[in-house]
Amino acid sequence: MEVRGGGGAGSGGAEHEHNRDIIIVGGGICGLATALAFHRKGIEKVVVLEKSEKLRAIGAGIITQANGWRALDQLGVAAKLRQTAVPLPNISIIFSSSGKIMYAFDNLLGRDGEMRCLKRADLMQALADDLPPNTVRFGCTVLGIKVDPSTSYPTVHLDDGTVLHAKVNFYP
Ligand SMILES: Cc1cc2nc3c(=O)[nH]c(=O)nc-3n(C[C@H](O)[C@H](O)[C@H](O)COP(=O)(O)OP(=O)(O)OC[C@H]3O[C@@H](n4cnc5c(N)ncnc54)[C@H](O)[C@@H]3O)c2cc1C
């Protein structure tokens, strides 16, 4: 990947060349998990562009069902996260106004193996911690993605004028 122009993707104004093949836009749960999946497969030329200045976990908890835990197992972060996640054997969805129960699910652990509530910040930190250094670039706002007519590869345009060239771009 080649980085041209303005701030060089948050790198202080110099022009830079970066040998990255894959650009992921957005360092939320999806972007971080996608980057970690590439890393686990040995694909290292990946960068995640995140417009915030740091990891941004909106909301407190996230309920993760059995398929989510299988994905986290594959990503190699489930064992660590299970230490602080709260198992949920039963769930009731309740109208806040009336207190009436809309749905109630019992014995979830027995039926489908695993359902737990995680702190969002723990999940994002665990995904980010296992990425190679400098995989996530903060303060990089993507304005648009175009196709380079000469190569047919995507070009990613940042708000500071930087243009990034990649072979693959993910916009979760
Ligand atoms: C109230 C609520 C409760 C939920 N509860 C659950 C639950 O219990 N269980 C569950 O599985 N799911 C739950 N979800 C859904 C889950 O939170 C989302 O599916 C998940 O967070 C989406 O992650 P994401 O990475 O795709 O997107 P996001 O978390 O939105 O991340 C996108 C990232 O991209 C960055 N970004 C955006 N635009 C740009 C740009 N132009 N340039 C650079 N960076 C950019 C943002 O800053 C952000 O960090 C809930 C959602 C809500 C709203």
Automatic annotation (TrEMBL):
<protein>
    <submittedName>
        <fullName>Uncharacterized protein</fullName>
    </submittedName>
</protein>
